[in-house]
Amino acid sequence: MTQTIKQQLSSPGGWLQFLIKYNTIFIFVLLVIFSAFISDVFFTSVNLSNLLKQVSGIGIISIGMLIVILTGGIDLSVGSMVALLAVTFAILVNLVILPLAILGTIVIGFALGSIAGYLVAYQKMAPFIATLALMTIARGLGFIYSNGSPIIFETKGGLFMSNFANNSTLGIPNIAIVFFIIVIGAMVMLKHNVFGRLVIAIGSNEEASRLSGIKVNKYKFLVYAISGALAATAAIIVASRTNLGSPNMGVAWELDAIAAVVIGGASLNGGKGTAINTLMGVLILGLISNILNLLNVPSYPQQVVKGGIIVFAVLLQRFENK
User: Fold this and answer.
1) pTM flag (> 0.85)
2) Phi-psi region of 172 (alpha: psi -120 to 50; beta: other; left: phi over 0)
3) Is position 303 within any domain?
4) Where do runs of H (alpha helix) occur along the chain?
5) Is residue 192 a part of any domain in this protein?
6) Which of 88, 104, 192, 258 has minimal CB crowding within 10 Å?
7) For residue 75, what are the contacts with CB-CB under 8 A and spacing of at least 6?
8) pLDDT digits over 121-149, tens only?
């Protein structure tokens, strides 16, 4: 790999090609340098810990979004599913022992994702429509089951999860460790596992994959189910951080997840994207929000900045493809 990089840098226009190919990492490094330059607070342990905590929930659903997008699909339901599953976890943690509450929430998330997967894979419904419908249903169910009010953890199991989510191990927030483990698992799955290679193949050319004997519908069904399970994991983390489950959680998270995947260089047409680049995309979004917060920029201008960055990332992809 080192030899390949040297050859690329030594070729005409090699530096430009190198920067374009690894633009996500380059942008991330620039943002870190810029953040350190404008604020003395940035490199403090408290700020970095808060940054990792803030991006972990969105980061987990971004990995699920990546897997869906690799097939050429999209999942608009993940933000609302986080809300519903946070409420679900809060209810379960107050009724049953903690392991059952965690397992039950993830199983329900998997089942909800399976509904979208079934509609997309077997009923040939457009992913945008299927997940948009599920997004509306999930948010509505969250308000119904919670009666529109947050549900507070009231058991020892809930207190344990709250302590876990708000504490660190070796200076790294526990929930960030969970996020990094999921990223590593996705990297292994997409690069070294048959499932991951078939998912990428389907996104690259679905018809050719079908003609070669790949069970396309099965894998398209599974990616949405996995996205649902990861949304449940994110919901458990977010609810544990605040010690409650609220139907107002996860608002517009699906857009942040899509943004992170796109900034990471994945193609919305499918077949292109990596877990490590999605991690970089998540961190870039987190860094931007962190910088703007340190500069006391209101939330509305932050949305404008994020939108501009998404446009820039897509244009950069087109330039790279050319």
Assistant:
1) yes
2) beta
3) no
4) 2-10, 14-21, 23-38, 45-70, 78-93, 98-121, 127-146, 156-166, 174-192, 194-204, 206-211, 216-242, 253-263, 275-294, 299-321
5) yes
6) 192
7) 64, 65, 68, 113, 116, 127, 131, 224, 227, 254
8) 999 999 999 999 999 999 999 999 999 89
The parent domain of residue 55 ranges over 49-251+267-273
Domain count, the chain: 1
The answer to the question of residue 100 being in a domain is yes
For residue 142, CA distances in Å to 22, 37, 136, 152 come to: 40, 43, 10, 14
Instruction: Say if residue 8's pLDDT is above 70.
Output: no
Q: What are phi and psi of 151, to 5 degrees?
A: -110, 115
Q: What is the average pLDDT across 78-91?
A: 96
Confidence of residue 164 (pLDDT cuts 50, 70, 90): very high
> Is residue 302 one of the residues assigned to a domain?
no
Distance of alpha carbon 117 from alpha carbon 81, whole angstroms: 14
Q: Is residue 231 over pLDDT 90?
A: yes
SS3 (DSSP) at 296: coil
Which residue bears the tokens 């460790």?
Answer: 177
